[in-house]
């Protein structure tokens, strides 16, 4: 992608909401050149696409914005992965890959990890509460979700920082323009993460344990030998799961705190009435969704919103656009934690809905309970503008400087 087009893409992704509004006001579907796709931004149309996976395949859900250099590809060749993952799979393969994740993130498994999550929340806040200021993304939001999903997967806590770092580097490598030397360095970090995950897979196969890694190994390999192809598949699966499990929640923590503090009356209401925290979580997820959307590709000629699409057409299914659709959400551009609950699309819809949505909600709930009770005077630091990361898959502040 040339630098001019990437600049246009960054501008769109940094603030996609005006584009969504124009698309909703357009008869039929709007074409977005930066995405090389038709934009689906109305709530009803988004839901229709997600209800029809046989017509709208997920095969291109994670098409990268940037193609890594040959030197970076050479480094990646020394790692593991490169196999279908749940977010890009359809039909029976999707069900086979999704089933152990659903079991591993069951309500009982999530409930079992919450005491640990609460301990980590308190410990992380303890680390900065006396300082009077914090950059929340690096000191908190990029730490808690990795610790929690690492615990569920069964990672050695010593390995969690490298796995979290590798996840962020994988996103950079595929979605940010980097110099070749930096691409190679990012690829090396990704491979380091993959080697940790491969070690975890081999350990669980040799000595099964009741964690999510063990669940995946048993489900996808059966009782037989752990082959090299099994290892590639499991590492790809774990890498995708972990990135989804921590980057999205990291983003949601950042955007939620940002919008509560930008709407001071909402923050003060939450501090005075903490029973509103669950509603605040839902409103934050609706108002500025961490996962703005995914691509889909048509498997046959279809008509959507009156627009005729041939087989092989790409659509960008904008969850964030549907969540600002006034036909479903009155005053859609107003952040209001007191609004009556209406089901939103922040965690997807249909067969590809996020199996970790409850875990994300619980971490955000714990975060708001801790911050409102211990730091009611929290506010955005003066002279520190907030820039949003130019991405459609983990939308969040680049940095979030706070004081109290």
Automatic annotation (TrEMBL):
Stored InterPro entries: Cyt_P450, Cyt_P450_B, Cyt_P450_CS, Cyt_P450_sf
Keyword Metal-binding included in the entry's annotation: yes
Top-level taxon in the UniProt lineage: Bacteria
Keyword Heme attributed: yes
Protein keywords: Heme, Iron, Metal-binding, Monooxygenase, Oxidoreductase
Pfam families according to UniProt: p450
PANTHER family: CYTOCHROME P450 YJIB-RELATED, P450, PUTATIVE (EUROFUNG)-RELATED
Entry similarity comment: Belongs to the cytochrome P450 family.
Protein name as annotated: Cytochrome P450
């Amino acid at each position: 992608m040339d630098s001019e087009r990437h600049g246009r893409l960054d501008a769109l992704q940094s603030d996609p909401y005006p584009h969504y509004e124009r698309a909703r006001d357009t008869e039929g579907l709007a074409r977005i050149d930066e995405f090389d796709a038709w934009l689906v931004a109305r709530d009803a149309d988004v839901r229709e696409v997600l209800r029809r996976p046989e017509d709208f395949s997920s095969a291109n859900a994670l098409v990268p914005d940037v193609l890594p250099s040959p030197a970076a590809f050479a480094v990646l060749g020394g790692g593991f992965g490169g196999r279908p993952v749940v977010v890009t799979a359809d039909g029976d393969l999707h069900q086979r890959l999704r089933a152990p994740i659903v079991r591993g993130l069951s309500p009982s498994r999530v409930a079992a990890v919450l005491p640990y999550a609460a301990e980590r929340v308190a410990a992380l806040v303890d680390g900065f509460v006396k300082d009077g200021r914090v950059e929340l993304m690096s000191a908190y939001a990029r730490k808690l979700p990795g610790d929690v999903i690492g615990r569920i997967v069964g990672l050695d806590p010593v390995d969690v920082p490298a796995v979290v770092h590798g996840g962020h580097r994988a996103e950079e490598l595929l979605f940010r323009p980097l110099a070749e030397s930096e691409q190679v360095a990012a690829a090396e970090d990704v491979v380091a993460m993959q080697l940790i995950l491969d070690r975890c897979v081999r350990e669980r196969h040799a000595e099964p344990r009741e964690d999510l890694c063990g669940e995946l190994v048993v489900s996808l390999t059966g009782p037989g030998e752990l082959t090299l192809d099994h290892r590639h598949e499991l590492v790809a699966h774990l890498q995708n799961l972990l990135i989804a499990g921590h980057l999205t929640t990291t983003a949601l923590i950042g955007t939620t705190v940002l919008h509560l503090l930008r709407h001071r009356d909402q923050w003060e209401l939450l501090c005075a009435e903490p029973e509103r925290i669950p509603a605040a979580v839902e409103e934050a997820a609706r108002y500025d969704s961490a996962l703005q959307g995914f691509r889909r590709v048509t498997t046959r000629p279809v008509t959507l919103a009156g627009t005729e699409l041939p087989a092989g057409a790409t659509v960008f299914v904008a969850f964030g656009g549907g969540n600002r659709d006034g036909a479903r959400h009155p005053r859609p551009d107003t952040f209001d934690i007191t609004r009556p609950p209406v089901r939103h699309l922040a965690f997807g819809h249909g067969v590809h809905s996020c199996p970790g949505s409850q875990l994300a909600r619980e971490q955000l709930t714990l975060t708001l309970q801790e911050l409102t009770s211990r730091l009611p005077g929290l506010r955005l630091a003066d002279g520190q503008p907030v820039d949003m990361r130019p991405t459609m898959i983990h939308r969040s502040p680049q940095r979030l400087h706070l004081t109290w």
